[in-house]
Amino acid sequence: MTWRESLAPLRERNFRFYFGARFVNTLGNAMASVALAFAVLEVTDDDPAALGYVLAAHTIPMVVLLLWGGVLADRFPRTLVMQVSNLTSAASQGLIAALVILGAAELWMLIALSAVHGVVSAAGMPAMAGIMPSLVPRSELQRANALMSLVRSGLVIVGPTISALLVVGVGPGWALAVDGLTWLLSAFLLGFVALPPRERSGTTSTWTELREGWTFVRSTQWLWVVVLAFGALNAIHAGAWFTLGPLHAKDTIGEKGWGLVLSAEAIGLLAMTVVMLRVPLQRPLLWGMLGISLLGVPIFVLGAHPTLIVLIVATFVAGAGTEVFGMGWNLAMQENVPDEMLSRVSSYDMLGSFIAMPIGQLAIGPLAVAFGYADVLMVSGALYVVICLLALLSPAVRRLPRAGEASTIAAPEPAAP
After folding, report:
1. Both 166 and 287 in a single domain?
2. What's the pLDDT tens digit per position in 281-304?
3. Element containing residue 332 per DSSP (H, E)
């Protein structure tokens, strides 16, 4: 496959504008995490608990309202839902930026505005998850997803650096103002995405639509098996790697070493994204679960043999495996879930992922105190791999094929002018 063929989705007008909208939006999001942290610390005189309050104010309403956001995204045009979400996010981020720049910000204001952002994110995220099959032909789904991953992986690497330079140069308020502008520009670009209206069979209540989504999840084995597995996997990853990992790394490979390890994972993600642009992925969940199982290896290595070069190699490979799973899961959902309920089903998937994370974050500390950092990390890494392999005991997970003929990726259809 040539690079020209790899970039074929960009010849689709709707995908081109969506790609541009997500590009600027992802850049803003990558910058916002750094800018918000420093803004909160500036407002609260370096109170470390304050940032937790602001982040929780965003996460809690988002998690609570995700299912209803999925209903909205299936009921109304997804581009419209995303535009409203983006415009409201632009307003909330812009207000935070203005308050910080003017020196008028107080903690309660940041908490309230972050909560508003969380509420609209609950609708915007399921809409994003459901829109891709409407933007490109099915034969182009893998390449389109790979292009989006390429943007995400690349900007996650450079975005925080740009934000840090803005924070140092002009202050966190101005960095947040740039983020607000990216939300606004993203909403503008989405206005050029023209999708045909989706047919709806009558008007049903929100609860009825939620039940329809749940019934589909419950009756689709590959779907509920993977979501159930990730309830445990995300708890382990959030606790062992992101919570306990930095603490153990500080006493072994050091803070600089930990930064190199995380960078290696991001580079692995980016490298595999380039591969996924050119290599068709068959049996998306078989290879996806095998790929994500590699994420347990650096967790185990950090506990058993915390040597910098070994960890860098392990996290690079784990990053590549994570991208294989991300691609496989997107393809499984986009090709096998009916368009009219894709956002609702995605919201159930997101809910299962987000709810599990605090469990690992809260439980890992007491476990490490009781049994030791190294032992808890080794057990966590081994358990992570075992759970991934247990999910593959399901024939529906192992055998799920790509929709359509395998040749559709190798020989793409002519793109629309």
Report:
1. no
2. 999 999 999 999 999 999 999 999
3. helix 308-336
